[in-house]
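Before the break, one more example. Copy the sequence into your notebook; we will annotate it together after we see the structure.
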Amino acid sequence: MAYPKLTEQPGALETARSIAAGKMSPSEAVDAAIARIEKLDRHVNALAVQDFEHAIAAAKAMDSQTPCDDQPLFGVPMTIKESFDIAGLPSCWGHPEFAGNIAKRDAKMVATLKAAGAIFLGKSNVPIDLSDWQSFNAVYGRTKNPHNHEHSPGGSSGGSAAMVASGMVPCEIGTDIGGSVRVPAHFCGVWGHKPSWGLLSKHGHDHPAMGGMGAHDGALSVAGPLARNGEDIEALMRLTSQVPLTSSPKPLNECRLLLLLDYPNAPVDASVREPIEAAAAQLEKAGVRIDRNSQHLPDLARQYDDYLRMLNVAMARGAPAPNGKRATATDWFDLLDAQARNELAWEALFADYDAVLCPPAPVLAVPHIDKPVFQSTIHVNGEDVEAASGLAWAGIATFPNLPGTVLPIGSTNGLPCGLQVIAPRWRDLDGIAIARGIDSLINA
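Here is what the structure looks like once it is written out:
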């Protein structure tokens, strides 16, 4: 049941510690990462935009420097989702007509990570418009799941997760509105964190059609880290958060957890349910209290409907829906009211619980298809169901603006399975701490 690891490469902080201790130089770290990419990416196609020349130059300039206290990623090579701007590199979101859209400046996230010592090797692949649980487009081609090349790595941060899972880089930054960090983490067997809405900057993450005039932090959408361990996820959150994060974690055996495996009209396949139930049984055996229901649980069917409406309006930026109808200002304010009520319902639930455990998605990594997943079906317990139903497990944390951490817990037929840990809003570090505690118990 253990989840399959594809690499023993060190994580981001471990790499930084090796550099600080003089065991390797930034140039050696970058050269090694480039060598791994040149060997592995021919099979995976996760790196969309290459920037090796600038990375090598940046590393050489750092070789004679000593890391400062505010440079926890000194010399660490990494990549970032194609949709984030890096000065001099294209940001086309998978659109051939925007392939020549060259960024004039770094996104704030990129600038923050560079200031912390990170060295960017390039940018990772995405689906067109960041709107699928696959990662393929006419500009960069198709990214494959490094565990099984016939399956998707997820989306829209699928290139990000594939880069990390394969060992090409130790960490990445993606974005999430419909599970776009959490689902790739689940599909690829790595860690991913969807922050509380508004914690991490998306300045410099604009659709190329907006010409740099986007709102940056649109409704529901967040930026979030991916890595191979919880230590790096916590560090990336502390480093990139726009406000100081506080934490008051409890020992795991003092936490009260709620396990959700059933959602109205969103069935979960046995390949996901069984590893999660097995993990829950391990936790209970270790003395962790886990409930299976609560009278304070919000109306999940209503939440799903409201989430889908808000998601579609936000993604279309108010353009007409496929039925030709355009959302009015009244429609939008009604959705904001519904979201506020939903947030309060979750707040009441978290008066009783430290975290909620649930699937990141109802299935494991889906096979490749030549159209968006959400225009098709997914196979759940022997039946084909509408793929959009799977968004329920993304929206469960997205609509109320809650943080959700995904960690790998098992596998079925060689495909990884993750567990989603949802915490109260703004308690991102507590949720990550619970996830790390779960990891130490079930993946020891």
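The first strand starts at residue 47 and ends at 50. The chain has a mean pLDDT of 96. Try to locate both features in your own notes.
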